[in-house]
Amino acid sequence: MTVVISLGGIFFTDTERIKEVAAAIDEVDRSRHDLYVVAGGGGRAREYIKIARELGANDALCDYIGIALTRINAKLLISALEDAYPEPFLDYIGAATAKVSGGSERIAVMGGVSPGYTTDAVAAILAEYVNADLLLYVTSVGGIYDADPREYPGAKKYEKLTPEKLVAITMKEELKAGSRIVIDPVASKIIERSRIKTIVIDRTGPHTISDAIDGKHCGTELSPDAVTTYSARK
Ligand code: UTP
Fold this sequence. Notes:
The chain is α/β, with parallel strands linked by helices. The chain has one domain: Carbamate kinase. The chain is 40% helix and 14% strand. It has helices at 15-26, 42-54, 59-80, 92-102, 119-129, 163-170, 185-194, 208-213, and strands at 2-7, 34-39, 108-110, 134-138, 158-161, 198-201, 220-222, 229-230. Strands 3-2-1-4-6-7-5-8 form an eight-stranded mixed sheet. It is globular, with a radius of gyration of 17 Å. The two termini are 29 Å apart. The relative contact order is 0.17. The mean pLDDT is 91. The structure holds uridine 5'-triphosphate (UTP). The site of uridine 5'-triphosphate has 23 residues, from helix 2, helix 3 and helix 5. Uridine 5'-triphosphate binds next to helix 2, helix 3 and helix 5.
């Protein structure tokens, strides 16, 4: 399978977290799965965006600052992975072309691409471009909820959802540089049009990523023919 993994910025806070997530990626059997990984910017990106905004930078410039931070995180991840291409790819074509010419067993890593969205959308566009079989979001909240679980402890997690329902949920969100949303509205529209199978899971423990690729997870699954169900667990 061709799999695009989107890693939330939460995985780049310290050495141990980076090692942990790199190990979870390294254990995926690459003779069976072709992997692309997109790194998020996390708290550091938000910190730099906040400073830039206080200095009077507009949203596009703030976005470029966020992109720079995601690319730094991509470099950190590359340092921790066993067999990744040595530099983050700057665009989708670069990543896909390298895989075709340089070998599909190496992991292609990238960060952000252009202003106006987040690495959620980068992962969705990349997945569409390479005709991925699976788009996997590894997040700090572990799935899609009917309200932000960080603000509303009673929020319910969806087990299954259609892309149309995801679009309805995410279109309520504000898309400002550095905003905190589980899947951004651009990503949800791309998922809707590409009909790609998408899973949103929690932060990794050992095997979490390989298990999700094999269909074992307790996050939220998006598929065009899903009947909306809520998870019994949070
Ligand atoms: P992230 O993808 O990290 O956003 O990009 P996020 O939603 O905060 O994700 P987490 O919390 O890390 O999981 C950080 C910022 O970089 C800019 C945006 O401003 C985004 O908020 N960015 C990133 C872009 O403008 N374009 C991109 O392609 C990627």
